[in-house]
Write a structure and sequence with these properties.
Elements: E1 15-19, E2 24-28, E3 34-37, E4 42-47, E5 51-57, E6 62-66, H1 78-83, H2 89-107, E7 115-121, H3 132-146, E8 150-156, E9 162-166, E10 173-177, H4 183-198
Parallel strand pairs: 2-4, 7-8
Antiparallel strand pairs: 1-2, 3-6, 4-9, 5-6, 5-7, 9-10
Length: 209
């Protein structure tokens, strides 16, 4: 087992474990969390309708991943999301998730113009009459376009959950489709998360620097 990489300040709540098969340390993030690293470790999560953005600066050797969902109503479509003002509850939460991750990468040496992005998630797995995954996808595609971020790859949508492993130094991402009974666990976790964010306050304005 290799030595546990040094953790950047502010992430003591994130669990890290040794993956014997990959011979790597993995920081596991849950819905509503993000993690940034400059160490020899991977960041992992499991996604249903939620989105994860993997963002890194190849030159500065720093990167991170988030895991978020928008608290949108059944009346929000792709086109209506694009028209939502930044101050809206939905976009405000999405902006919080994206901008805090980006700001942390920039804080540790990243440069916005060099950032590269990979996007995952947004599956249709929730027990609702409307597609939360589609709404999450609409938001993150619009956000990255508006911010001029370089999205080099994406795997979103469909009806299967995904397990994601991301190397924040190299930008390499591994994705595995999940088709087992664990789907119920994923859905239950996301439903609980959705109920939590409907009434939560994400704080004040967040700006990129």
């Amino acid at each position: 087992m290799n030595q546990l990489p040094k953790m950047l300040p502010g992430y003591s709540h994130v669990n890290r474990y040794w993956d014997k098969s990959r011979k790597a340390w993995i920081a596991k993030i849950l819905p509503g969390q993000f993690y940034v690293s400059q160490g020899q470790e991977m960041i992992g999560t499991v996604l249903g309708s939620c989105i994860s953005a993997c963002i890194w600066d190849d030159y500065a050797k720093v990167g991170g991943m988030n895991h978020f969902m928008l608290p949108l109503s059944k009346n929000k479509s792709f086109d209506s999301i694009k028209k939502l003002p930044p101050s809206s509850d939905a976009n405000r939460y999405g902006n919080y998730a994206m901008e805090h991750l980006i700001n942390e990468v920039l804080k540790h040496g990243g440069v916005k113009e060099r950032l590269q992005v990979k996007l995952f998630g947004g599956a249709s797995v929730m027990r609702t009459s409307y597609d939360i995954g589609e709404q999450n996808i609409a938001f993150v595609l619009n956000y990255t376009q508006q911010e001029g971020l370089n999205v080099i790859s994406q795997n979103m949508g469909h009806n299967f959950p995904r397990k994601i492993l991301f190397d924040p130094i190299t930008g390499k991402a591994l994705m595995k489709r999940i088709r087992s009974l664990h789907n119920d666990t994923i859905v239950q976790r996301e439903e609980a998360y959705r109920e939590e964010i409907v009434t939560s306050d994400v704080g004040g304005e967040v700006e990129l620097f």
